[in-house]
What does this fold into?
Amino acid sequence: MAETLSRALDRIAGSSVPLPERALALLRALRPLVPFDAAWLAFADPITSNYISLASVDLDDRVVDFLGGPVMARDIKVTGNDRDRPPQSRSDLPYAAEDLSTWSDCLIPAGIHESLTVALFAPGGRHVGFLALLSGSRSPPSRLARRRLAALAPVLAHGIDPMPCLLSTARLVRGATAGRVLRADSRTEPLPGLNGDPLLAVGSPVLTAACGRLADGRVYSSFLWPLGGEHAPGGHARVSVLAAPEDVPVVLEGVVLLSPGADLHELTPREVEVLGLVIDGCTNQEIAETLVVAPRTVAAHVEHVLVKLGARTRTLAAVRAEREGLYFPGYRDPPAGSEAFVPPSSGPPADSV
It folds into this structure.
């Protein structure tokens, strides 16, 4: 019987149903295996050390809000329950549970007197979640309950880990060589299986541009980034930005990926820059002022762009360039609160460029 229930838990963990539904189904499937009166399952944010509630069973909203707050996060850390170790109970504490605000201010008043908790870790040691099984009984959890929960913890971790979902999204970009996870707080996380890159370093203009695309509400966008300095002597990298699926915890907004630059339709690096400004709606005069060149030079660039893209008007050229990501966005206005975009390098202006 236990083996059948365990297989059911494994199937739920590997299912594609939305994360909140999957988390609740995991708790319900776990209950016959490791009995509890109430339960709370949360996503662990590795950057802020906070916990985001995913699902609960038989807990009122007040208790769930408390468990998802800073006091619980602090008590988890104080008791060492954020480490990869066997499940712990209240009876394992070396001091009275009442010394912890989570117990004295929340759980005991709610009629909870025992617990069995475990931090959830994905392969490679990523802390992905936390599970608390709660009981109104004052009897400590049985050895069988402890052993079963320890054995099932990796299954539960897999079930709530958002990275497989983000990696599936990242696979939509062929040939990706590097990537990062973009967060709502403007920070980033590693994307398992894809190395980092200097272009994606903290504070880089590439990340600022990528975050701007997500702030614009775009589900997918791509653009080019010059390599090796002015006039892209090293060619271009393609930057792809994909929004996270809706059921991923809200703190994770999407992914940014680097891949080799594709067919540029023989566009020169300067024409790629001009296209970015055309997409932004700039006139030839405004482009000339931005690039510090003569308007006639800009007009020539625009004419060349129209021919190379097979477009009759600059509007059609802009539409095609944005659709295919054939532009450099380095001069766009930055989103509020972010650093200004800058070109990868600077050099003396010249009309002939």
Notes: The first strand starts at residue 38 and ends at 44.
